[in-house]
């Protein structure tokens, strides 16, 4: 009897983080998560802060709050033109942010984040055996004291060519400044296991939203771990979960339980229809210990014990349905009949996988926790849909969107419209990062503020002052607005502006520069071989253009000969005019 109790107690202990962290380290982890999430929340509030501006402050700033009511300011100091401009822009931002729609957007964005944050803190409290009172106290401490070592950059981190892992990590630290923690002094192997444990813990919430990944990026930076370790962990976990789900689906116990429970089966089939994942099947009735064993055995190979891994995954380790739903809305659903049914009336619409066949579901080894979608702009041939995005690597499932609109088919405009639609629908946490290149959309702060609210990570505006096609075609229809594809987006915290004028000679060259631009801005998971191929293709095109220009110059005749030729053409035209006039006179007679 005593042995049984001891075994139960020992097993319970293995379900939490006590196997890898001491009590003090568990408390430090709780404080780290609370601090990071407080920094993330602050970034949301700064998006809606009227006092934040991209412009440099005037030499003598106008501080309304410091005015002395007993002094006539108009006589003491005349407002300069620069100060007047700053004051008017401040008033414009305050008016924009005081609009009911913008206030509601800020409120809803913070409510969504706070609910997610609370679920993370409470789940963490469960696995570190901290009571709710202790967790709440840590959150209060974080709110009062959380100060990262540096503010997130307003300018984009540009990586040098042939970037190695250490330099890429410098970019990670620059984008996601480390939060102070004693956990970084742990041995590297232990820090890697801790990062893996946090990934499993976040997945135990039965989703992997963009906020969760940004949190992991902050944790990686704070633990002084390279970015590639997190990417590798994501790939291994995705494949491990799907492998476990596959084992579950073939179990006789699964089939028996699903047949015995028709209500549960209807629920499972309904969820499968929504998720569109072939892996779901009827796995939801599997006994929890069996599922935990299947999940834990596979996950345990990544540095955690089987029971600990299953314990961290929580409900995710108890239902193959949930595992399937985690992946079903992506991968399989992007290429299956479900998507065809949604878009059957739009024949030009499709998600084309860059890996494998568009007619088949992705192979298990190609499945990932994240999806990257590339949307091309001006299409001159079929290959333009996929070609620009071959530089995207293997750490996420990559798709190119085939689509057509009337007039210009500019992909950045579509992303702009999608993000605005997500903001209207309050669909937070779906988009981790968005890169818009040559965007034919206004550069006004208001729409970009709304877009920023639904992008948890990086929102990058890539522009070129040399894009004359965009300048002409967009401004002829919207002359009252600035164009984001031609200039910076200002006065919105968190927007990264990248000037690629030195790389882009014209709008039609963008498709050959997608990989180079993504590499320049430090976008993760870029295939450098494909980038090199893009550059070779662009070099050949530019060489061809140069030769054509030289041929045209070589064919140019002597100025005297050209003048004589023009004189003859004028004489012929005059003769034709005279003959026409003579015929008309004869006709009237």
TrEMBL record:
One of its GO terms (cellular component) is membrane. InterPro entries: DUF726. It comes from the Eukaryota. Residues 1-10 have a biased composition (Polar residues). Keywords: Membrane, Transmembrane, Transmembrane helix. The chain crosses the membrane at residues 271-298, 310-330. It is found in: Membrane. Residues 1-20, 55-95, 539-589 are annotated as: Disordered. It is a multi-pass membrane protein. PANTHER family: DUF726 DOMAIN PROTEIN (AFU_ORTHOLOGUE AFUA_2G12860), TRANSMEMBRANE AND COILED-COIL DOMAIN-CONTAINING PROTEIN 4 TMCO4. This is Putative membrane protein C6F6.13c.
């Amino acid at each position: 009897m005593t042995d049984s109790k001891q075994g139960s107690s020992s097993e319970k202990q293995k379900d939490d983080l006590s196997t890898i962290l001491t009590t003090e380290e568990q408390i430090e982890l709780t404080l780290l998560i609370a601090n990071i999430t407080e920094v993330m929340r602050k970034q949301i509030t700064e998006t809606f802060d009227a006092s934040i501006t991209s412009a440099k402050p005037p030499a003598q700033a106008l501080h309304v709050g410091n005015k002395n009511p007993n002094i006539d300011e108009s006589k003491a100091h005349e407002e300069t033109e620069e100060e007047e401009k700053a004051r008017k822009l401040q008033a414009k931002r305050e008016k924009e942010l005081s609009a009911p729609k913008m206030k509601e957007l800020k409120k809803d964005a913070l409510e969504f984040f706070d609910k997610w944050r609370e679920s993370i803190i409470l789940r963490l409290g469960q696995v570190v055996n901290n009571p709710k009172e202790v967790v709440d106290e840590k959150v209060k401490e974080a709110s009062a004291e959380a100060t990262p070592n540096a503010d997130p950059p307003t300018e984009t981190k540009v990586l040098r060519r042939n970037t190695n892992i250490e330099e890429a990590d410098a970019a990670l630290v620059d984008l996601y400044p480390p939060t102070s923690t004693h956990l970084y002094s742990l041995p590297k192997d232990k820090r890697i296991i801790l990062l893996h444990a946090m990934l499993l813990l976040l997945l135990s919430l039965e989703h992997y939203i963009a906020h969760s990944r940004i949190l992991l990026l902050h944790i990686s930076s704070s633990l002084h771990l390279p970015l590639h370790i997190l990417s590798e962990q994501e790939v291994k976990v995705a494949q491990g979960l799907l492998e476990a789900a596959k084992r579950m689906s073939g179990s006789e116990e699964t089939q028996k339980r699903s047949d015995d429970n028709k209500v549960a089966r209807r629920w499972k089939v309904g969820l499968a229809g929504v998720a569109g994942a072939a892996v779901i099947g009827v796995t939801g009735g599997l006994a929890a210990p069996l599922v935990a064993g299947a999940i834990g055995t596979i996950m345990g190979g990544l540095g955690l014990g089987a029971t600990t891994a299953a314990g961290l995954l929580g409900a995710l380790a108890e239902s193959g349905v949930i595992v399937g739903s985690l992946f079903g809305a992506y991968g399989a659903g992007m290429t299956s009949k479900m998507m065809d049914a949604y878009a059957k009336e739009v024949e030009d619409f499709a998600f084309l996988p860059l890996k494998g066949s568009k007619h088949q579901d992705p192979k298990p080894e190609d499945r990932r926790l994240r999806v990257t979608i590339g949307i091309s702009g001006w299409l001159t041939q079929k290959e333009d849909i996929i070609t620009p995005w071959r530089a995207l690597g293997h750490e996420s499932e990559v798709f190119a969107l085939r689509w057509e609109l009337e007039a210009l088919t500019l992909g950045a405009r579509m992303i702009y419209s999608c993000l605005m639609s997500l903001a209207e629908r309050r669909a937070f946490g779906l988009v981790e990062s968005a890169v818009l290149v040559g965007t034919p959309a206004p550069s006004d702060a208001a729409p970009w503020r709304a877009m920023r609210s639904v992008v948890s990570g990086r929102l990058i505006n890539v522009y070129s002052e040399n894009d004359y096609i965009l300048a002409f075609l967009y401004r002829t229809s919207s002359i009252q607005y600035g164009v984001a594809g031609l200039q910076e987006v200002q006065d919105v915290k968190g927007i990264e502006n990248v000037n690629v004028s030195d790389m882009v000679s014209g709008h039609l060259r963008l498709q050959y520069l997608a990989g180079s631009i993504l590499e320049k801005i430090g976008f993760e998971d870029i295939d450098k071989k494909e980038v090199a191929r893009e550059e070779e293709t662009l070099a050949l095109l530019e060489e061809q253009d140069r030769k054509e220009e030289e041929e045209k110059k070589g064919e140019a005749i002597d100025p005297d000969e050209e003048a004589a030729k023009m004189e003859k053409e004028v004489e012929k035209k005059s003769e034709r005019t005279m003959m026409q006039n003579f015929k008309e006179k004869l006709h009237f007679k």
